[in-house]
Amino acid sequence: MNKKIFTNIKQLILTKDSGVKKGADMAQLDAIDNAWLSCADGFIDNSRSMQVLDDSHLQDAEVIDLKNKFVLPAWCDSHTHIVYAGSREREFVDRIHGMSYEEIAARGGGILNSAKALNLASEEYLYDCAAARLRTMILLGTGAIEIKSGYGLTVDGELKMLRVIQQLRKNFPITIKANFLGAHAMPLIYKENRKGYIDLIIDEMLPAIANERLADFVDVFCDRGFYSIEEANQILAAGKKYGLKPKIHANQLANIGAVQMAVAHNALSVDHCEHIGSEEVACLLPGNTMPTLLPSAAFFLGLHYQPARMMIDNGLPLALATDFNPGSSPSGSMAFVLSLACVKLKMFPEEAIVAATINSAAAMDCIATHGTLSKRQGCKFYSD
Length: 384
Ligand code: NIG
Ligand code: FE
Prior knowledge:
Blueprint: E1 3-12, E2 32-40, E3 43-49, H1 55-58, E4 61-71, E5 75-77, H2 89-96, H3 101-106, H4 111-120, H5 123-139, E6 142-148, H6 155-171, E7 175-183, H7 194-211, E8 217-222, H8 229-241, E9 245-250, H9 258-264, E10 269-272, H10 278-284, E11 290-293, H11 295-301, H12 308-313, E12 319-320, H13 334-343, H14 349-356, H15 358-363
Parallel strand pairs: 1-4, 5-6, 6-7, 7-8, 8-9, 9-10, 10-11, 11-12
Antiparallel strand pairs: 1-2, 2-3
Helix pairs in contact: 5-6, 6-7, 7-8, 13-14
Bound molecules: N-(iminomethyl)-L-glutamic acid and fe (iii) ion (FE).
Fe (iii) ion (FE) binds near residues 79, 81, 249 and 323.
């Protein structure tokens, strides 16, 4: 047995197998002061106060004295786009000149620029770039990540991205979930034939992805100027036939009813949520769909921030994620996301920690193994 025991922990955070935390409960960290934690064979097996540490706990264990440090669960980053081929700094400057994200997209830039670069890049190059990003994110404290496709927008490009994600999953010690986002932007050649591209997603991409078991989830950028409610309905229904659980980009640019549509599909999460009112809150309250806020995308695009305070005060759970991508959020730092959540969204630090751990684990369907320091949660060691 490979047993380790960590002693003299100033505070051990999220020690209970609490499940998703909602509303006022998001401020409860279930902490133990002056604690120890032990793990064996890759799982947490016990934690208590230092006052109840005896020789039987130390037996056959490697003892690591943490000398009064905090211990938190690793971050769960439930929304990222880290497989991409090049940066988009020109658009960054275009936005400073006054163009909006939507205007850049409408002239064929934005996601379509990333799609051009990705289709020209080799699988090896994409893997190397994404692996470098992932290594940095792990060193910043991320222990589980969801990664989307969506810069291919062709059968080959989408499969190439998902195969890169599969390789990352094989080679890295953290949990990785793959999300098929073929409906990220409309390729220019389908601009006058939207149905043609939806058919390509449903009739060609989804069967090929299912055949190679390349995805866990299906996503749609369901928003003004991107995909309509009706188109999203078709894609999510088709994805579900292959066992893919929906996670939706919703209400970032406008409220076109994407939250209600996602809840009707029992989606795991609705992500972005800049445009949320009382109807969306009422619709989310009884269900299991996790509202996931991506404040660094609002920061980099200069959009107004998500109404986190109103959502928590009305009893909703919230998750946080980086949305790491070359266009709207060029950062994989969960610490930055937590800072924005507190400074700009007025979330309390306890709420931000819960949103970035246990609730984000729920948003990526790995709550049984990630997001708390309770017994039977996974415990891995990583150094670069
Ligand atoms: O989550 N909103 C849509 N998709 C991404 C942006 C992707 C991009 O601009 O490349 C997002 O912000
Ligand atoms: Fe995104």
